[in-house]
Amino acid sequence: MTDTPLLSVVIPAYHEQEGLVEALNTIRRFADSLGSVEYIIIDDGSTDATWQVIQQISSGQSSVTGLRLSRNFGKEAAISAGLKAATGAAVITIDADLQHPPDMIPEMFRCWQAGAKVINTVKRTRENEGPLKAWMTRRYFDLFHRLAGIDVGNASDFKMLDREVVDCLNALPERERFYRGLVGWLGFEQRTLLFDVAPRVAGSGKWSSTKLIRLALDSIVSFSTTPMHLMTLLGAGFAILAAGLSLRTFWLWMAGTAVPGFSTVILLLIVVGSILMIGLGIIGIYIAKIYEEVKQRPGFIVQQRAQFPAALPHSDKDQTDQAEPVPPSGPVLVREVSR
Fold first, then answer.
1. In which element (H, E) is residue 163 found?
2. Among the CATH numbers 2.60.40.10, 3.90.980.10, 3.90.550.10, 3.40.920.10, which is that of 7-223+297-311?
3. How many Å from the N-terminal Cα to the C-terminal Cα in the chain?
4. 236 burial class (0-12, 13-18, 19+ CB within 10 angstroms)?
5. pLDDT tens per residue across span 132-148
């Protein structure tokens, strides 16, 4: 596309070969009428035929661009890759499984036209997740708000961002990202819309319990140092307790009524040892985060790009290798193969 589009739609996809075509067609029904739109589909290292489907779509639709990451970097990295590639005045991020309802796009667009810089969407109900998972999700968002001081409001990754917000996100130097948290941290004028989760158009969910726990832990550590301060408070509390026990022991000794306290000593050693190990673990997590950041590895690597032949600078070639300079921070395109 030669002209700058009004709207960019970023669609991260991982193992979505069955429903990707239907998902894109459904999204286009609601987005194409809003003006010039570009669609950026990011294959997050799928091992099925997702990339072949993206190549087939992009070869026949000039508004569709496909990016293939060199491996599975995770959804956060896929969204970052899409935001880097998006050129529209406004950008929408939406899942490829149609659980984010595309029929909300016109309403989000109207909110943006009315002046909102960020339009968040929040699940109205979570019945499809089960009562335990829904309860844990709500507790997580409450905990994140208390520790990080950022109210993401149980928001999803289904958002519309103004170009100003997208540029600010792309300028942030950190590698490991929590998209919802970063958008909340940036501020700007925000609107919230509610939606009901639709059933998946095809396939199954890709988020395992392990991945969700890791995302929750990474997001809290990335936005809050409260857990480290908590260890200081626990240490102070045990110091006060130790002082009190010392005074009590001295008083009993002065009164001649001191009795052996073997069990008490063992119990205190176990408690204090556990607190110390937990504290070391928390410190280790933060040191690991620092280690990951100072290595300055890119957050993702784009291996291939699929685009409509007329939009390519050398469309007569099946493959073009383009060496690009490494920016001072953020992701880098190491190799692009144009189709």
1. helix 163-171
2. 3.90.550.10
3. 15
4. exposed
5. 666 666 666 666 666 66
